[in-house]
Design brief:
The protein has 737 residues and is of the alpha/beta class. It is built from 24 helices and 16 strands. The strands form three sheets. Strands 3, 5, 6, 8, 10, 11, 13, 14 and 16 form a nine-stranded parallel beta sheet that branches. The protein has a five-stranded parallel beta sheet with strand order 4-7-9-12-15, with no helix packed on it. One of its GO terms (cellular component) is synaptic vesicle membrane.
Length: 737
Amino acid sequence: MEDGYQNRTAFIKGAKDIAKEVKRQASKKVGRSVDRVTDEYSKRSYSRFEEDDDDDYPVQGSQDGYYREDSQAANDDEGGHSDSTEGHDEDDEIYEGEYQGIPRADSGKGSLAGGPGSVRAGAQQFKDVGVSEAERRKDQEELAQQYETILQECGHGKFQWTLYFVLGLALMADGVEIFVVGFVLPSAEKDMCLSEPNKSMLGLIVYFGMMVGAFLWGALADRIGRRQSLLISLSINSVFSFFSSFVQGYSTFLFCRLLSGVGIGGSIPIVFSYYSEFLAQEKRGEHLSWLCMFWMIGGIYASAMAWAIIPHYGWSFQMGSAYQFHSWRVFVLVCAFPCVAAISALSAMPESPRFYLENGKHDEGWMILKQVHDTNMRAKGHPEKVFSVTTIKTVKQMDELVDTGTDTPVWQRYRLKIMSLSQQVSENNILATFNPEYKRTTFMLMAVWFTMSFSYYGLTVWFPDMIKYIQKQEYESRTKTFTKERVEHVTFNFTLENQVHRQGHYFNDKFLNLKMKSMVFEDSTFEECYFEDITSTHTLFRNCTFIASLFYNTDLFKYRFVDCKLVNSTFLHNKEGCMLDFSDDFNNAYMIYFVNFLGTLAVLPGNIVSALLMDKIGRLRMLAGSSVISCVSCFFLMFGNSESGMIALLCLFGGISIASWNALDVITVELYPSDKRCTAFGFLNALCKLAAVLGISIFQSFVGITKAVPIIFAAGALAAGSFLATKLPETRGQVLQ
């Protein structure tokens, strides 16, 4: 027995050495074909010897299981040699990185170190690109079918509902972010002395940030994981939202809101992709539509908090005149709570198992799917049910890592890794969405996303602006005009509002502790007058003369005096910065916050209808039908000549159009494979934000001029989007690619 064992070991080692030598010598002439010949030769040598010696040395069969290495070598005696280790060659060793689909640095796969071996490996790798891509596609198709079967076994239950609320918080944070700047702008513009261009930039900056964030985090989610990318993006949003509530200058506040937008931009593309990979085919459309409700909840939360906090100016403090923390900053701080809650909850949730399986990590994906199964079965009262899946198909991996070597400086290693990751994202994800296989789908979706976003965001911002314009017209219609009045030795210590004084003469009058709102003095003379503790809003003096007058602790700055003459007049201790407008704040808050609250709440019926019908009538019918009805509803805008009429039309448009957004989110998730899903969704969502900026800018320019142009633009865009939507493939009833 001892001699037979030694002969067997020597024969195995000799066969390996012969096979390697033949392979090395012949590879120079015949290339890849030798691999098959030598592999066959090695197999025959093994099988012949094992057949001859089978009676004396039985071969241990492998066990069924989901683990890749089921060798029993670990059970042998300490220090002993088993059949699996005797005659072992280092070149055949499987190490941890290769187990995950990553080649060893010394294996020659993808080596960048140079030399004949790396040249041959590079040529071989170049030849195998087409074969590897075909194998990957085949693996992805097989995985998609098996994954759907596994999700059916796992069922829909406690795990999916828990993840639903966790990801809902992240989507809620996105909804809050859209409304934050719009709500704080009326107060922030006075607190920071913002000009009209600065106000416009502050209103649009969040869209620019979200555009960059959607593109960036969507692409990274397909490379480093959905959960990790979402955690990083939400952390960036929460940090800079916190900072923006304390910074004082306009530039720093603008910068913080930009980075806050970059962070939250990853929410929508990652959340929908992440959640879809835990949903079986018959539940996917419905539950993705239910998830959209959290965006509405975010808008309601922002409106309610703004209404409850911003008008309360007592919730503020200041440190001298340099640092002021008013109530609108408290509101900005409170708006970061959903994002912080999402980060805390998401930390306890697992990565998408589909992402692991697509990246060759079988065991990690299996463990998560088992967790989903066991959680649901325990919640349904069937803890005895066992997860029957033992092996899951994984996708063939490409060699993508760069060997930086051990002598390379740390900073250079990170630079090379970042460059390599950027190249992989660019070539394998972003450009791959424009491959011939997906080109038509991508361009069609780009057109639909752009047209819907252009019309929706343009109109939703145009509605409040039109309401403000109607309010302004009504306010100006109540303006009181005084001409050629003469006032002497009078003390004004009450509020002056919405008045125009022309050609007046004021002698030895006192204006004490006075609030002026929308006051205009034209061609008037102020002689020996005293102004103390004046707070003004929209107040101007045009072509007036001030003789021997004193201004003490007022906010009447130079820009309020237009073509005026100051003769022997003095300004002492002028107020610094801009003062908040304390007058008529309740009415302003009512119109700004309550209107947005109603507009957001109005999408609830549309959300419910789309969730119930998404899997019954299909994604395309829902998308095209809702877009057509929204297009028709645009023409009713011509009849909105009052505040109540415009509010009703805003609610109508929002309630109808939300169904098309839900259908578009679902169909975008289902039209791309898992390794490109987040990238494609992020790219389309970035295009959506660009269209939003264009729509808002164009529609706002026509406020107070004409209604016809915005209505025609919106209706035309929706009509084009609904037509193009019918050309997309229907995804109802299909497995997730």
